[in-house]
Amino acid sequence: KANPLDKRLVDVTIAAQGLAVLERLDAINHELDSVVSNQLSEQECEQLSSLLDKMRGNNTKRRLVS
Question: What's 40's DSSP letter?
């Protein structure tokens, strides 16, 4: 719904069904983190995280250019 103080803004709320989806995604994310951290060293986890951040950054730049 429109923000009553600033008409340029829209206030968004997450419905109960959306919260349930977020809880499931959080559980999946936690499980994935556990699997990865059990198979990689701390240094490898940091490197993977850095590489994934770099990929996300490059992907965003490509979308902006296209």
Answer: S
The dihedral through the CA atoms of 19, 20, 21, 25 has a sign that is positive
| Residue tagged 């069904």 (tokens) | 17
Q: Cα–Cα–Cα angle for 27, 25, 63, nearest 5°?
A: 140
**Do the domain assignments include residue 34?**
yes
Q: How far is CA 15 from CA 3, 20, 28, 49, 51, in A?
A: 18, 9, 20, 31, 34
Domains identified in the chain, total number? 1
41 is a domain residue: yes
What is the model's pLDDT at position 63? 56
Assigned domain for 33 exists: yes
Q: pTM (2 decimals)?
A: 0.53
